[in-house]
Amino acid sequence: MSAETKKMYGILAEFNNPRQLIDVSKKVVELGYDKFDTYSPFPIHGIDKAMKLEKSKLGWIVLGHGLLGFSGALAMMYFMSVIDYPLNISGKPFFNAPAWVPVTFELTILLSAFGAVFGMFFLNGLPRFNHPLFTIERFKRSTDDKFFVCIEATDSKFHADQVHEFFKEAGAAYIEEVYE
Amino acid sequence: MSKYQYVPEPALVKGDHDFASITHLVTDVNLRPTPKAWYLLMLPANALLGLLLASIGYLIWEGTGIWGLNNPVGWGWAIINFVWWVGIGHAGTLISAILFLFRQDWRTAINRFAEAMTIFAVMCALIFPGIHVGRIWVIYWVFPIPNQMGMWPNFNSPLLWDVFAVSTYFTVSLLFWYVGLVPDLATLRDKASDKIRQIGYGLFSLGWNGSNRHWWNYEKAYMILAGLATPLVLSVHTIVSFDFAVSVIPGWHTTIFPPYFVAGAIFSGFAMVLTLMIITRKVYGMEDIMTNDHMEKMNIIIMVTGSMVGFAYMMEFFIAWYSGVEYEKAIFLLRASGPYAWAYWIMMTCNVISPQFFWSKKLRTNVTFTFIISIVVNIGMWFERFVITVTSLANDYLPSSWDYYSPTIWDVLTYVGTFGLFGTMFLLFLRFLPMIAIAEVKAVLPQADPHNYDENGTYHAPVEEIPEHVTVAKPKNA
């Protein structure tokens, strides 16, 4: 399909190693682009600072879930063993807090883990099976051995020619325009 | 000459590997046609799995009377096998979570593998509490689900705690494993050339594309999961030990049980990881990633936890004497010299003596020797659970009610059958999923560190700075 009929998603540049990816990320940030992303087969040490990423909000999601698990477990046991059907078991108190520690603990962990996993996928916008980048054949190597930067067309400073020029200067091994 | 020696850290990945060769090495196992040997192994595994299903079927049909349980011994092989399998599972979580928190980068070679083992071992374990209840069709009574009696589970019971502990453990282990798998499934999706694999792996990789904004949340999630799984794994075998320790049976009612069970679990789990790893890395040619250095480190952990277990055995004797309780003293003397002395001494030999060989560097770096010890350890740990469960029940307070416990053929077949389940699952795992955490191994290669490149992007292998006036020790396994 021709470029005129399709909306541009952004411009993708390929690099050969993590050092180049960090250097180019720093420059992208310096130039004032903020709708961009970098892609690598593994997390790179220091890329968060180079890309000026904000602290992940995941911790708060997990904390919320953990508190829910903790209070939910206690509320459940209190309802079942004290309110709904109290059973006298060898004269133990109905509200037997020490004996409830294991179940409370396990449910706190369980809910926190749900928060961590599903919260992470939620923050990342996954699952998302269709992505403009998946139309690029070379992009398959982002999960193998290549490093990519994509500056997106929705960025207010985006001008295709300037981005091309910038990537060429930065030493990209390959540059391609991505269409939705 | 200084008296100090500088010991260089051995490289985590041997051989001349870069990112692409790691990807190829691991994914090729899943992408090439199924080897004949795989079918040959699948056959006995499936046969044993069938045996398991048949013996469970007969159990449900006939009742727990087909097992060798008798009047004082109401807990037999079912409980022993449950504790044994759960214990084996613990090594996977230890490797994936605790070693992660301690920044032990060598774990990346074996964590995927060990976590898979955890999940399959816990599956085998979960069968036993499920089927040993007699009326399996009301097993849902253990969960807080409304039932026709209007009753709820008893939250004061250690057996109920166990339900929550083991099911949480299984769920969290599965999630942790899956989170680790997502980027590697994406690698497989991108490497696969046929439609079926592209769709299958694509579906489970959830559209992962290696975005660093995603990695940023991902790493946070991984860290949090490791932080959650660490207390969880310690709690699981603690709660399993409560099944025994909270009772008033002599030999069970001890406070040493939780730490002693956890140490034993890690001990047997590492042995199982080694048994599987030594075979698998040979068959699939993964010796560059699962190196002998890893094996040596695991052997050291086996030695440490084995010594902890040995110490606990002696401490139990001391406390039995020190407590002044006649029944406590009697049960420990009976363990070592009574009707089950044979089992006790198998346990002592396998668990206390065998790991001590690993003080010798020569032995702990020897593959064949490690393989033998890894099996011996798991035999020993099975007998530990046998000794704990059976001796205390068979010889309790009233000598007039003592009886000798022997398993029946159905006990044995059910246990042997669980190896069929384990083997089937493990073979499926090796065939269809990446057995090594590809992304994590790449991240510990020296090429992954941006500091090892100069301004022009040329790679320079890191040079080790050796302090002056210090001799350099010979590199390990050179």
Quick overview:
Helices cover 46% and strands 13% of the residues of chain A.
Give keywords.
heterodimer; A: alpha+beta; Alpha-Beta Plaits; B: 478 residues; mainly alpha
Summarize the SSE layout with pairings.
The complex is a heterodimer of chains A (180) and B (478).
Chain A: E1 8-15, H1 18-30, E2 36-39, H2 47-50, H3 58-84, H4 97-123, E3 147-152, H5 160-170, E4 174-179
Antiparallel strand pairs in A: 1-3, 1-4, 2-3
Helix pairs in contact in A: 3-4
Chain B: E1 5-6, H1 19-31, H2 36-62, H3 77-101, H4 111-131, H5 158-191, H6 195-204, H7 212-245, H8 257-284, H9 292-323, H10 326-337, H11 341-353, H12 361-364, H13 367-394, H14 409-432, H15 438-443, E2 471-472
Report on this structure.
The complex is a heterodimer of chains A (180) and B (478). In chain A, strands 2-3-1-4 form a four-stranded antiparallel β-sheet, with helices on one face. The longest helix of chain A is centred in the middle third of the chain and has 27 residues, at 58-84. Chain A folds into two domains: 8-55 and 125-179, Alpha-Beta Plaits (2-Layer Sandwich); 58-123, no CATH class. The radius of gyration of chain A is 25 Å and the shape is elongated. Chain A has five helices and four strands; from the N terminus they run E-H-E-H-H-H-E-H-E. Chain A is of the alpha+beta class and 180 residues long. Chain B is an all-alpha fold. Chain B has one domain (16-144, 152-451): Up-down Bundle (Formate dehydrogenase/DMSO reductase fold), CATH 1.20.1630. Chain B is 65% helix and 1% strand. Chain B has a two-stranded parallel ribbon with strand order 1-2. The two termini of chain B are 23 Å apart. At the A-B interface, helix 1, strand 2, helix 3 and helix 4 of A face helix 1, helix 5, helix 7 and helix 15 of B.
